[in-house]
Structures are given as C-alpha cells and as structure tokens.
Automatic annotation (TrEMBL):
<dbReference type="InterPro" id="IPR023796">
    <property type="entry name" value="Serpin_dom"/>
</dbReference>
<comment type="similarity">
    <text>Belongs to the serpin family.</text>
</comment>
<protein>
    <recommendedName>
        <fullName>Serpin domain-containing protein</fullName>
    </recommendedName>
</protein>
<feature type="transmembrane region" description="Helical">
    <location>
        <begin position="413"/>
        <end position="433"/>
    </location>
</feature>
<feature type="domain" description="Serpin">
    <location>
        <begin position="20"/>
        <end position="402"/>
    </location>
</feature>
<dbReference type="GO" id="GO:0005615">
    <property type="term" value="C:extracellular space"/>
</dbReference>
<keyword id="KW-1133">Transmembrane helix</keyword>
<dbReference type="GO" id="GO:0004867">
    <property type="term" value="F:serine-type endopeptidase inhibitor activity"/>
</dbReference>
<dbReference type="InterPro" id="IPR042185">
    <property type="entry name" value="Serpin_sf_2"/>
</dbReference>
<dbReference type="InterPro" id="IPR036186">
    <property type="entry name" value="Serpin_sf"/>
</dbReference>
<dbReference type="Pfam" id="PF00079">
    <property type="entry name" value="Serpin"/>
</dbReference>
<dbReference type="InterPro" id="IPR023795">
    <property type="entry name" value="Serpin_CS"/>
</dbReference>
<dbReference type="InterPro" id="IPR000215">
    <property type="entry name" value="Serpin_fam"/>
</dbReference>
<keyword id="KW-0812">Transmembrane</keyword>
<dbReference type="InterPro" id="IPR042178">
    <property type="entry name" value="Serpin_sf_1"/>
</dbReference>
<keyword id="KW-0472">Membrane</keyword>
Amino acid sequence: MTTALIPNGAFLNAELDFGLSMLRQVPVTQQLVVSPISVIFALAMVQAGARGKTKMQIDQAISRGAADGAVVDYYSKLSRAIMTSNNGTQARIANGFFIDKRFNISNEYANTVSSMYSAKIESLDFTQPEQAAKTIENFVSQVTSGKLQNIANADTVKDAFAVLINAIYFNAEWEYKFLKGSSSNRTFNTTNNTGRLVGKRLSRCEQRKVFDKTHCSSGRPAGVAVIEFVNESDEERLYAEDQDMQLLSLRYKDPSYALNIFLPKNRFAIEQLREKLDGAYIQHMFSQLNMTSLRISIPKIKIETDFRLEEALMAMNVSEMFNDSADLTGITDSLRLKVSSATHKAIIEVDEDGTTAAAVTLFKLIPRFAPPESVIFSADHPFIFILTKDKNPLFIGQFLEYHTKGHMWKPHALYPSIIFALLLYNGIVVIFLRPVCDQGQTMGGSMENLAIYVPRPANKFTQHYRVAIMTVASVDKMHNYEEALCEVCEKTLQFST
C-alpha cells in the first residue's frame, strides 16, 4: 500500500521551479532528462550540514526558505512514499554518504541523514581509490538495477573527504497499456525548417495535411524525422488544455504516478512554453485534468543525459557550497569542507508497456584547501630516540648505523685514531688514519684517512721540517675531527718549539 503524502503546495512549487530551472540550462534544441527530486535529495543532505549563506541558498532552491524541520519532515515522508509503491510499480530512492575512513562526521549530522533520509553511511579506504569507487558504483547499480554505470572512478574519491550520492529508480506499467500492434512509424518535426509555422496554431485538419505531406513524400524536408510512435484511439484519459498548450496525463498501475506531457499548440513554440511554465502554472493545469475521449499518438522515448550539474546549480544561485567560503561545519568541525564537483546522470525509456527511468546525483566533498601531500618520514640517517612512559624518558639513545649481531656496534668517533702531524715552515698538515670496522669485518680490516692543512700562526716559526708521529689517547673520547685537530695542532706546535 502506498504511503500517503499530503501534497504541500509550497514544496511542489519549489520542486517544479527547480526542475524547470535545470531544463532551462540547456538549449531548447537539446534532448534532456534530469531528475529534480534526485538533485533535491542530494542537496537536502548537504543542507543538513550547511550553515550561514551556504544553507540559505540551498533552502531557497529546494523549499523557498521553509523551516529546517519542515524540509526534513517533507522529504523524509516523500522518500518513504516512493519506497512503498504498489501494484507492481518498482520505485526506489536511496541516499549514500561514503566517507574516507580517516575522517569522522558529527553524530548529529549522521543521525539526521541516516534516520530522516535513510542514508547509508559507510567508511571506505580512499587510499585505495579503485576499490572505493567500485563500492560506490555497486551502490548505484543496485539501486538503479544496473541502468546507470560509470558514475564513480578513482578520480572521484581522490583527495575527497566524502562522496554523497542519491540514486532513484522507477519501473512501471501503464494503467492502460497501449496495444502492441498500435505502434507505427511517423514523422516528428524537430525544428522549424521554413519559419512559416512559427507562432501559427494548427487546426486538426491542418495537422493531418502536414502529416500526410511529410509522411508520404519520397523525400523528407529538413527538420523532420521518422520515429516510432505508440497510438490509441477513442480512449478516456486525463486531459486539460488552455490557449497555449495541451496536457496529457498517463497514469501507471500505481495511480499516484503519472507521465504528464505538455504539448505546445504552436508547433515550434516549445521555447516559449518552457519560459512560461512555472510551479504554480503547472499545478493549476493539474487541477484542470478531466477524463476526456482522446486519440493519442506519442513517440517512444529513450533519452540518456550526463548533466553538467555544477554549472547549472551555480547559474541557479546555488553557488556558495562550491566556494572556499562554504560553511559545512554541521557535517564536521574538524575540517572546512566544500563541494568540489557535482554530477548528475539520468535515463528514461517509454514504450507501449510503460516506463523505466533512473537517475543519480553525486556530490564530492573535499577540504576547502586541498590537503597537503603526505609528509615523508624516512629514517635513513642518524636519529635520536626516546622511549617514554607518560612522557618520562625510560630510554634515550641515538641511532647512527646498523651492525649485525655478533659484532660490537660503536660510532666511528670512538675508535682510536693514529695521527701524523707534518710540521712545515708555514703551517701544519695533519693526517688522520683510523681503522674502520665495516659490517662483517674486524677492527683493522681497512683504514680511513683524512688530511687537513692548518696555516702556522704568525708568531710561530721554524726553519726545520719535522714529522711528529703520535697516538693521541684523548681522541678516543672525542666526537669529531675538529676537537682532535685542535689538540694535535697544539701539541705539535709545542713539540716544535
């Protein structure tokens, strides 16, 4: 049994106006299908965590500024109503919030989107982007019965804080099916090829004459296509009209659903019609629907659209959430977030049996400023370590090199050094010779040397060349050549005096 949803005129107007605004973002010559409700649900999830100007813009777009409680209550009920369709109608709507497992969201936000919007909240490893994207893809595919694919990839989750998804699916049979044998190929006038018919309302007789001419001629004029139509004659269906348009409402087996076709009476006046339509006008036309005997001919429809949602929303004055000034602190206060990209994809197929439609909306949330690249910590050079207990240093040390088990590990500076001091008339050349204990070798396996020239001080002079050979025992306790050099020079000069 379908969950009753009491229509709310303000919300219906806002939704219809929102959908028409999306429609107006593309040229009138371009085929299009979008799901305003899918985008609105995704925006409602963002709105639940938005504050300030960011929230105000979303509120205005989806509810004309209704109170928070009213927004959540209405769309929560709408979600449940969609999910409880009957009479064989399959209708699903699902929200998902896929977050990088390194981050967290506020408990209040999690409770709102999970309890009121039935959102699935799942932590994923975004450092494995292909696997994370596959999980998101599977979510969309399951909701839409595989109708929509290639929504998420590795780039979708790269640098993301979270990916927010709404997916919707609809599959239903007509309340009164068209007969299979009623299908026929007919002409469809796509554009005005002569300019002659613009603004001219055709009578039924004129419509028949134009049809006969274009359908029977050996060559089709420009702007005319032959496509497959479904037809029925003298059947009672819901219908309304005014001076500018005809409205046909075809109900499905669950009569709470209907396909409503707004047909301009002026053949090429669709642009004027879409500019004229708004939520209030459409609701007025719905109120005028009555059962009327009709001869119906409508084309089979198959449209798939990748919609540039980010550009559309910004043009529709929902721009703040994309800026560095975005305020989404209700989602988390540990990072400053913004929406970096918005994706919308939809498909619809209409034939004599019924309709299948699906849509998905994806928002990628990132920190306002891209997170810095990971700091590299590669301990490939000497370091100091401290092992602590409640910050008390239990152990402290420094690691300078590795020595295999079975050999003593000892810093080079602690090895005894042999020093040759060659005393010249104008200075001293000091040569350090030091045994090197390499990995796997014993002391004395090789020698390391270093020669340093030190100019003789002006007040010290000798006419003799002397060589001082000594082992300076104190070098064992010195930490570098500089200390050793100072002592050797001092002793050498004393020796030469």
